[in-house]
Structures are given as C-alpha cells and as structure tokens.
Write a structure and sequence with these properties.
Blueprint lengths: L2 H17 L4 H15 L10 H4 L2 H4 L5 H20 L26 H15 L4 H16 L3 H5 L12 E5 L5 E5 L2 H10 L12 E2 L2 E2 L2 H14 L9 H14 L4 H8 L4 H4 L1 H17 L1 H4 L5
Helix pairs in contact: 1-2, 2-5, 6-7, 7-9, 7-11, 11-14
C-alpha cells in the first residue's frame, strides 16, 4: 500500500471511529480488508472501475463471505472518499457481488435448555462457589441474550436489586436495555457473597475478568452435565436460543432487535427463517399427508 493510501485509510478509520463508533476490532478488520485489496491494486485511492472489476478474478478462490466482506469495506471506503471530495466519482459499482446463502444459526430445543438448567441447579445446590457462578452465567446468557464479551465484562454492581433491566454498552459502544429476570437476580445474589476482595468485575478471572475462552469451556461443560453433546453448545448458541424461543413465543421482531442490540433489522430477521424452517420440518414430519403416499 502506498503512503498516500495509508493516509487515506487512516482518515477513513478515524471517521469510522468518530462518527460510527466502530470498535477497535472492526477498524482492524477494515484495515486488513483494504490492505488485501491493495495487494492486487497498489493505488487504491486512485483505482478505476476497470481495476476494481479485476478483483472478482483475483479473489476467485476465496469464500463468498470473504469476498463480500472485502467488497463491502471497499464500497464504504470509496463512498467516504467521494463524500470528502477526495474523488469526484465512486467506482465501487464495479466491485464483485457474490451471492451469499446465510447459514441458519444453531439453536437448542427448549427441553435441552431446561436440561442444562436442571443440571446447573443441582450442582449449585451444593453451595460450591464455582457452581453458583456457573448458574449465574447460564441465567444471564439464556435469560438476557447477552453476547459473550458483554457477559464476562459485566461490572460487579451491574445488577441492582429490584431493577428488572440493566443498561449495557454493546457493539459499537451502543447502549441498550437488557432484561434481567428474577431468576437471574437470584442466581447473581447467591454468587455475589463468594466474590473475593473489591474487584471490578462480576465474573473475575486472572488479572481482570473471565475470558471468553473460559466461558466457552464452562458452557460446554454444563452441556455435557446435561447429556448434550458439547460441540452443539456455545455462549452464542444460547444467545440464538434466547432469540428463537422468544420469537416462537410471539415476541415482536422490532422488540427482539432492540433486545439483541442489532443495528440492522435484517440481522434479526434470520430468526424468522429459523422458526419457519422448524415449522416446515414439523409439517413434513407430523402431518398425515406427509407420510400418506397413495399409489398413482
């Protein structure tokens, strides 16, 4: 990448940080995608539509999702250059647009989530601090739909007695209200007396808070305790279960978007496809005409 392009990318990332509230990892991803494009087109800032059109062939061996992500980064980059007056045109219409089939998220059935809770509650009945902590983690993952990073980084005093919600700062530093059930309050209240010292986090680990990797391991261990294959379960799968089970219970899609902290309703709409797929499967399995095959 040329020096001029590096300066333009720096300005672009400053805009994303200041105006869009982009997180550090998001900015690193944009820089990586733009650097990858610069390997094929050395002068990104002055690239023509014809040059951008060659990226489809250059990226032919990449996954469609990777091509789509890189093209999206370039489209936003050139849109920025055009708005800032650095360019008089926007050549991004020549970028490749691969057709993506978004995979449906993995979920757990309600009875499987119940089994995880029964196993976690049985262990917590012993009064062991780690078992009490694990139950609190499970209640907040499934009961509130928190992301893994949001959960492990919760402040020690995040949950207040009698307050059925907390204000959470999630992706892109955007704040949202997160519901906290009475069960979650009770589980956290049982865990709090076992917190040593005056640490800043509700779920401490090492020198700071519990790591995402450790949370992943704990959730899989809880799944194994419930007789569920551990490779089917993760913190994100429990977040998916929270969303899917709410939608199946009649939750409004816009309300679900707010609860999950999705910036775009299209991200939330994936759960309508999950529920529809399950309904089709149910009809094909249970409807009399699905198995009644009369001879022609």
């Amino acid at each position: 990448m040329t020096t001029d392009d590096r300066q333009l990318v720096d300005r672009f990332c400053e805009m994303l940080s200041a105006e869009a509230g982009a997180a550090r990892n998001t900015l690193l991803a944009y820089r990586a995608d733009l650097a990858a494009a610069a390997e094929t087109i050395p002068d990104l800032g002055t690239a023509t539509g014809e040059q951008l059109g060659t990226l489809g062939a250059a990226w032919a061996d990449l996954a469609p999702s990777t091509v789509s992500r890189r093209a999206a980064a370039l489209r936003r980059f050139y849109g920025f250059l055009h708005e800032e007056g650095v360019r008089t045109d926007d050549p991004s219409s020549s970028l490749p647009r691969p057709q993506l089939v978004r995979p449906l998220p993995r979920i757990l059935e309600p009875h499987e989530v119940d089994a995880m809770f029964h196993a976690a509650e049985d262990r917590a009945a012993s009064g062991q601090p780690t078992a009490l902590r694990n139950l609190a983690l499970l209640e907040l993952l499934y009961g509130s739909g928190l992301r893994a990073t949001e959960l492990v980084s919760l402040p020690r005093a995040a949950l207040r007695p009698g307050q059925p919600f907390l204000i959470l700062k999630g992706k892109g530093a955007k704040e949202r209200l997160v519901p906290i059930s009475e069960r979650a309050h009770a589980a956290v209240a049982a865990w709090l007396p076992h917190l040593a010292g005056k640490g800043a986090f509700l779920f401490p680990g090492g020198k700071a808070h519990l790591s995402r990797v450790r949370l992943f391991q704990l959730v899989r261990a809880m799944a194994a305790d419930a007789g569920i294959a551990p490779d089917r379960v993760s913190p994100h799968v429990l977040r998916h279960a929270f969303a899917t089970h709410l939608l199946a219970g009649g939750a409004d899609l816009r309300a679900l978007q707010a609860l999950l902290g999705h910036a775009d309703i299209a991200t939330t709409q994936i759960y309508t496809h999950v529920d529809s797929a399950r309904l089709v499967e149910l009809v094909n399995r249970a409807h009399p005409l699905a198995t009644d095959r009369r001879p022609a």
